[in-house]
């Protein structure tokens, strides 16, 4: 059974003049001990989808549909009702780890405060033991406990943020663009370490990213998101080797390949649509090179392929 099952999820941000539908009728199953990358260009709704899981969105967001964690629907629950779940069952590693912690307090003290917030009967010494243990898990030396954030490199700060996410042994770990600001060598090291942690700690990992190379390196499955819609889902090896949806093909063609130096790089023409407007047909149709009349009139349904792969496109036959 899926550890996390999302059904017909919509997230709408309301302002005085309009309503922006950032996530549109998304359905997605995430299996236990799975690793899935949610990929798409900036503004596609990836982070909004992730933050909706734990109700970390601002008050201007209206959420409807279902987000079931172990058969319990989280939609509509208040932050107070989700206290038992946050960090202990489902944790998040946020973007911009360099700004995640207070610059005037030592790393160890800050992480110990978070630990003691949930483990109210634990002593300060027990908290310190747990934090030092976690620092070792993410390949940081014990001395980091007594350092300030400014004394750490970007890669070390990212590891601290991952340690913070693991502090209560969550079953699901969401990483929101967690390696974006790192150099490629450090990024690769952290991705490899994440895979090892996942196997050792039996974690279900969700990676939010705009980078197809991160998905290729560190995920088993991928969900491609465009303008609030999930347009393709499947095993990474299937989707990257033979993408079905035109948007997925465009994303792959927009990245350089180290294994194929002769590959031509092409951007996707146009820009994201105005999500405050209604769109009758396929949301990607105005930017699609193979769209036809039906694409502008009717929304495509998901078509099934081998290995539980799906893609929503009128131009696909399906199995």
Question: What does this entry look like structurally?
Answer:
The structure is a single chain. It is built from 8 helices and 12 strands. It has 319 residues and is an alpha/beta fold. It folds into 2 domains: 2-89 and 172-262, 3-Layer(aba) Sandwich (Rossmann fold), CATH 3.40.50; 98-169, no CATH class. The strands form 2 sheets. An 8-stranded mixed sheet has the order 6-7-8-3-9-10-12-11, sandwiched between helices. The chain has a 4-stranded antiparallel sheet with strand order 2-1-4-5, with helices on one face. α2 (107-118) crosses α3 (124-137) and α3 packs across α4 (154-165). The chain starts with a strand and ends in a 7-residue tail after the last strand. The mean pLDDT is 90.
